[in-house]
Amino acid sequence: MDITEIDREDFRNLLNDIGNTFMPFGRFGPKDFPPSGMPIYDLPPEYLAWFQERGFPKGRLGELMEAVHHIKDVGMDSVFNPIREACGGRRSVRKRRNRRGDSEDFGV
Fold it and tell me: I need a labelling partner for 52 at 20 to 30 A (CA). Which of 59, 60, 68, 85 fits?
């Protein structure tokens, strides 16, 4: 999909699809970012670049991840800000620490 040749309505639909898609597997999947995984618009550029080098997943997920990569690559990450605001803000890529204070947190 060439984003430079997309009309306004198609771009709006693309952003809607991106806003409703979460990473279903891997490092940013539901296991580490419950319950649905990381929203693909908040995936780190380095992670998307890794897929660019090795190949995006097949199907619609890969198409959307590739579009997010292109948008971020040209410095237009701010196009996702309205989606982020509607969903409560940017998701942090840092994993949450266990706040119970268990000794296992400190390797003891």
Answer: 85
User: Is position 64 within any domain?
Assistant: yes
Question: What is the overall mean pLDDT for the chain?
Answer: 87
Q: Could you give the C-alpha distances from 90 to 4, 34, 39, 82, in angstroms and in order?
A: 26, 15, 9, 10
What residue numbers bound the domain in which 54 lies?
3-91
CA distance 99 to 45: 29
Give me the half-sphere count of Cα atoms (radius 13 Å) on the Cβ side of residue 91: 25
* 61-85 confidence digits (pLDDT tens): 999 999 999 999 999 999 999 999 9
Q: How far is CA 83 from the centre of its chain?
A: 12
* Confidence at residue 108, expressed as pLDDT on a 0 to 100 scale: 45
pLDDT value, residue 94: 75
> What total number of domains does the chain contain?
1
16 neighbors 69 (Cβ within 8 angstroms): no
